[in-house]
Amino acid sequence: MSSATESATATSPVELLREAGLRVTSQRLAVLAALAEGHVDVETLTARARERLGTLSSQAVYEMLQRFVEVELVRRFHPPTGPIVFELDMDAHDHAVCTACGRIENVPATSRRPPTPPGWSVRETVHIGTCPACHLHV
């Protein structure tokens, strides 16, 4: 993992882009600012970036995200109950997904993982259930 990804929360967006070897552009800065809000799907991310810039194509956002994932600046997560989301947190962690509202939270990864089938390589464990807010209303 690069130093840009290890210090994502302590480094400015400009520094993150430079450390990842990427050119600093207003479009990239707008996308990173929108990503700072947590787990964001492409549609929401594009809308938030457009609020900052005025115009930005969905294709440009897809291409930026692909490049950000390639240089390990951004993590891609496909929850079982919704669209693919992206996040800046590159530290090792798992995800908890609420089946009622779709909320996604990071869960610290532990060395103790559930048993896996022989030969499988597990990258992440996904916890599926209801978040505290939804659990109170169920």
Number of helices: 6
Strand content: 15-25%
- Shape designation: globular
Mean pLDDT: 86
- N- to C-terminal separation? 41 Å
The biggest beta sheet is recorded as: 3 strands, antiparallel
* Radius of gyration, taken over Cα atoms and rounded to an integer in Å: 16 Å
Total strands: 6
Main sheet strand line-up: 1-3-2
Can you characterise this structure?
The chain is an alpha+beta fold and 138 residues long. Helix content is 38%, strand content 17%. The chain has helices spanning 3-6, 13-19, 26-35, 42-53, 58-70, 132-137; strands at residues 40-41, 75-77, 85-87, 93-98, 104-108, 126-129. A 3-stranded antiparallel beta sheet has the order 1-3-2. It has a 3-stranded mixed beta sheet with strand order 5-4-6, with no helix packed on it. A hairpin with a 5-residue loop joins strand 4 (93-98) and strand 5 (104-108). The termini are far apart.
